[in-house]
Design a protein that fits this description.
The structure is a homodimer. Chain A is α/β, with parallel strands linked by helices. Chain A folds into three domains: about 90 residues, Winged helix-like DNA-binding domain superfamily/Winged helix DNA-binding domain (Arc Repressor Mutant, subunit A, Orthogonal Bundle), CATH 1.10.10.10; about 120 residues, Aspartate Aminotransferase, domain 1; about 240 residues, Type I PLP-dependent aspartate aminotransferase-like (Major domain) (Aspartate Aminotransferase, domain 2, 3-Layer(aba) Sandwich), CATH 3.40.640.
Chain lengths: ~475, ~475
Amino acid sequence: MTELNITLQDQGHLYEQIYEYIRNEIRKGKLLCGERLPSTRSLAEFLTVSRTTVEMAYDQLLSEGYIEARPHRGYFICETGELFSLEEEKSGEKTGQAAVSEPAMKEKKEIQIDFSPRTIDMSAFPYATWKKINRGILVDGKNSMLSAGEPQGDLGLRETIARYLQLSRGVRCQADQIVIGAGNDYLLMLLEQILGKRTAAMEQVTYTRAADIFRRFGYELKVTGMDESGMLVSELEKTGADLAYVMPSHQYPTGTVMPIARRMELLQWASEQENRYLIEDDYDSEFRYRGKPIPSLQASDHQGKVIYIGTFSKSIAPAIRVSYMVLPESLLEIYHTGCSCFSSTVSRINQEIINEFIRDGYFERYLNKMRRIYRMKHDLMLKELGILLDRFEISGADAGLHLLLSCKKKGTEEELRRLASECNVRIYPLTEYRIDDGMNHRIPERLQKPTVILGYASLTEAQITEGCARLAQAW
Amino acid sequence: MTELNITLQDQGHLYEQIYEYIRNEIRKGKLLCGERLPSTRSLAEFLTVSRTTVEMAYDQLLSEGYIEARPHRGYFICETGELFSLEEEKSGEKTGQAAVSEPAMKEKKEIQIDFSPRTIDMSAFPYATWKKINRGILVDGKNSMLSAGEPQGDLGLRETIARYLQLSRGVRCQADQIVIGAGNDYLLMLLEQILGKRTAAMEQVTYTRAADIFRRFGYELKVTGMDESGMLVSELEKTGADLAYVMPSHQYPTGTVMPIARRMELLQWASEQENRYLIEDDYDSEFRYRGKPIPSLQASDHQGKVIYIGTFSKSIAPAIRVSYMVLPESLLEIYHTGCSCFSSTVSRINQEIINEFIRDGYFERYLNKMRRIYRMKHDLMLKELGILLDRFEISGADAGLHLLLSCKKKGTEEELRRLASECNVRIYPLTEYRIDDGMNHRIPERLQKPTVILGYASLTEAQITEGCARLAQAW
């Protein structure tokens, strides 16, 4: 265990002093790669500061790659040789430029708090279980290394997913309808092969990556207006689209939950022509904190019009690259006859691990745990943002991993972003989630005000508190 | 350790008797799930038969899923409860049908020997190393679970692949040009996004799956003739194609190696128009047994016309679903601007494992080992097929994992297939590798004769010997 001789100053944040001390010791080569840092508890006792303060410092060192966490063992110094010399040069340059003001330097060094809506919290992930399953499969499952497996994914995992979707989302399907693929983007590519050229409709404020992908496919992209129930079907009808992309359980990023009446309208639209389909992207339905779970749109679909897409990116880890889609019966034949040439994109070992992880109940336990953790962070966000409620309005709460904050007063999103940035807080203007067709479509009133998105999944409680305090100060 | 009380009969193959005895003991529930079988050596000694005989019996039980091999531990009985009752019912039915003749029954039970050209041998795979690397990554690499990673694959692995390709294949590229993806089919899908609609040319006898994929893309597919140097560039020119798919180092399935003169012609063709590209599928270049390694076509390309595709499906395992392509500089911009919306399809943990596996020298050692094993099998094939050389001609030797056998006498491929099938040997008629455009293109003389393909990668030496003997008998 490494000894740290930190002397804390009265000035400046305590966690920053700890962070800077350790970072400098690493840069100077006084803390070497592989050395273990004191535990947060013991360092907090030693310095007589709160454990949260030490945790924030360690979090920042972690996210900057200076240290790494090893489960059950603690925090260790990483290999940072190259980084060191790079920084040295820069400091040298800076020394030459006497004009750099002290406050500017100080600001740059402050720890950034990033309210990214795209990250997740992996700190409670059952690595030990995952490893255990992994080990078992590598020993016993030699056969699964021998071939690419079925193009649509291994039957065992498809059956497990079908059961899970049935129970948790009311999705009605057979294993035969499920296609497992390496991420949603890949599944959309496969859908392009199945559906051919399309005119696709999306709401004006939406998951823009899907819009980029549709454009890349050469699809004609139509934009519709939206209200507090979601996509306006009256506008959808006028677009001439034959494919609509929606997120009825928790629209990204607006957080809108589509009520049953609007769902019926959408299904009605789809049923009016044989060639029309709905893509339901059910990306984060696992995380709902209040009220009953929202069932899937697919559950209400009796005409085989919904292509349901789900992912393990939020519920397990983005890095495992596993998503799944449920094809309606009407598309199965073309998939089986036309697309069997595309072999599976998911490693069979990963398929087996996930299958065992779900089948043996670990997934459910993990989801329950994460729901609790995320709900705690969600509630903390609501509490800490309370101070802003005279000037701001919160929406999109009670589900998912982010909130929306709309400014009741005058101003622009860019101004909000800039002010936050000056306090070293990163927030995400709603404009970034807007697809533009040169027209102004209807959007919910709250979103007509300057609105920013705050994701909280990967932040610690201390970071949430600090981040919200900085925002209150900035705005 | 389980005791086996086998009494061998004089009639019938010895390995079949062993196989049937053990299978029946499992079915009757006398050998239970988890029990260990004697080692091949000790059972061979006990029965005073050759070890190969026991190995063949175990191989068959393995491939039928009755037993499993655990590295360093031996062979264990698998869970087969369901299978058991299923078979019981069937036997019941059969008993009812007194008409089933004895010889027919006998034939069905005989072990099939499958000369599939698509399988590989995983028996020497360093599972322990793989597991060790895996374990290390799951402990230290928490961060790598946190995001989807770079769309084109993690820089570390791309750098490792770039170095490997440079050294082993003469491929000249930077890590920036490499895109890692979940299998060749996926990389072709991504290429469609980069290249847009195309007229693609392939040789008449080729990797038909790529042809299926091009057709699925809506590409116009042109067929060219081929001689002993590969694709006829004079024909290619006439097709109007702007994309040609070739396998210059070892054409699949003909085994043709494209000489430098033809390569130059191809590169010349490509350089004549800005929009023309060559796809070089270098699927099994790791396995060459005689003479110098054949360099890649990409190594001779100074105009940025070659899109190089390679895979770990043959050299590590098909089940890991990892391939890579090297984009020429001219396509990089469109990839980066137009295709960054497609996130990576390979799990980051798998990327890290492969990176470490290659970087730390395990891959090279494993390839050297497999080259020895496959060469041994290749040489054994040549030896055992010697008996057929009065009527057949062997081609495609000295590289890869399969041979071609052409019949000098009259007959059809279908007849050869049927005769082999009657001896429970599966071989692959060349016709299955032919793409048809209604025209008769030139093909090498040897391939105009009835020709079949014999893969040997996953067969044991005993199976190769037995298989070739059966073919000699059948034909």
